[in-house]
# Entry
Amino acid sequence: MTSQQTPAPARRPIRELPDELISQIAAGEVVERPASVVRELVDNAMDAGARSITLRLMGGGTRLISVEDDGGGIAPDELATALKRHATSKIGNLDELESVMTMGFRGEALAAINSVSELTLHSRMDGQATAFALDGRTGEIRPTARAVGTTVEVKELFFSTPARRKFLKSDSTELAHCIEAVRRHALARPDVGFAIWHEGKLVEQWRVHPGASGLEQRLADVLGEDFVAQSIPVAYNAGPLKVIGRAGLPDAARSRPDHQFAYVNGRFVRDKVVMHGARSAYEDVLHGQKQPAYALFMQIDPSLVDVNVHPTKIEVRFRDSRAVHQAVRHALENALAAPRAHLLADAPNDADSAFDLKASAPKALPESASWQQGGMAFERSGPSTFSAPSYKPADFVRPRVDGEQAMADLKALWNPPVRGEDLSAQEARPADWPAPFAVGDPSLAGASSDKGMETPSPLPEGDWPLGRAIAQLHGVYILAENKQGLVVVDMHAAHERIVYERLKNQLNAQGSEGPRIASQPLLIPATFAANPTEVATAEACLEVLAQLGLEISPLSAKTLAVRAVPTSLAQGDAVELARSVLAELAQHDASTVVQRAQNEILATMACHGAVRANRRLTLDEMNGLLRQMEDTERSDQCNHGRPTWRQMSMRDLDALFLRGR
# Structure
């Protein structure tokens, strides 16, 4: 059997395409669906200086899209030119293109839309006696009635390209995309009013909000009051770049990234640099695959950003992408750093919401000893009425303490430096510096066995946000009483964050040899059998390990020795710590250890150094932990994004027991 050869196609001459086909090809890039038309027309309306924009739709935008504005309008002799390809009033030379500030500038939207629909353009300028309408198919211009501004009507979208229309979704789906397109514009322009009508019914309306508070009010209107209530303001300046907006709290994270809005000079963008910078800021406060919610508005010199890299202008290119990444990250990190426990001090007191509970509480204020914690002093007089639970000595397992140096390391672990305090000054404190979270203090143990459990009296006015510890539950949770009611703290998660932030502060303390964590040599090196990957990582990452306060060297081809560990973690399992750190380093570029890798490694180290579950704590130790939480950045979540504490108000507790019903 002879094989049949496919005949070569006949050669076709190279020739220019007709203008209409060129416009239809361009429409394939610019006009993807009705929402694309809405986006382009709203861009033009805002560039014209509109303060009120009305969108009218039928059939989800497939049968009618009408955008009305009260902007400056178009001169009658420019109406026909407006529908030509690459005709625009927004740029005239390369310099203007490189510093463009308008939403549109390419001059292809109207021509592309006109090629795949029936378009009519109505416009009137201030001072004109009448408005004029242009028929996009015939080019006919006729007088019409209209106030100052412009109306663009787009009917039967994709009527000339039926294959494109087959790819559209249902009317409700296309309507949702159109609303989302307007919503993105509305967020950035609180000084402009928007209204959306579909099939003659008002679907959405966002009124004008002038003034300094307009942005926050518009965010509440568009994204909901819950977003504003569960977010914090962002304000950051970095040279030519300014970042403002709101960042959602980690507790309000979502399963999908549908509440992530980033704007560059008023333009909504989907930029990988910005998105990665935002995600990096939330890295150690989000749990699992949760997605943060935020609305960020960046102002940058137009010459430092190129917006002419995508037909729909949704992508941009920054001249210094690293600076933008760092600005976004630092803006969000700074906003998220403050512990939210301090907000409780300004919260209303729910204790008197339903019943007068003061009658059942002791009337005398508690007496306590003068005790102090790094950065916060609590001066009172008289003997202490606080005591720990009466545990049997066999139940209380004290950590192994080897001499004064080990005790000093433990005190350093429980007592992190205050924000803004010089670390060298922290280390220079006397060895007998008092700390409420002093592990294994014999005086506390004695007090525990002598007095047993006592119930503290109500908190005096102006006391601590997280309250005063009253008990420990199953060796896992700390129960504390504050003015609002009951606070439940996950002690391991809370202490893990405290140790983690302390390690980060030590690493960031610049010295002559760069950022390093203080290390302590081991009297007897800890050896362990290592696999080839661990040995290779230890040999390749000697400098990185030194920065992290670890000294790990090979004894043989299959054995590693741990010769020094971080001072704050001297009481931990050195072998387990070394294995965990080497496993983390093996997944990152050890030659240029980035901050993300460092933080992941520090998180692993902090997990090993934090107090474990089923560890019995005295009341003074629990109170010390609460005070440290109030003074530690990002203490509302542990390193893995889990919450460290929860507040139950008196109203919540009353509801559980149906009090007042």
User: Anything to note?
Assistant: The chain has 21 helices and 24 strands.
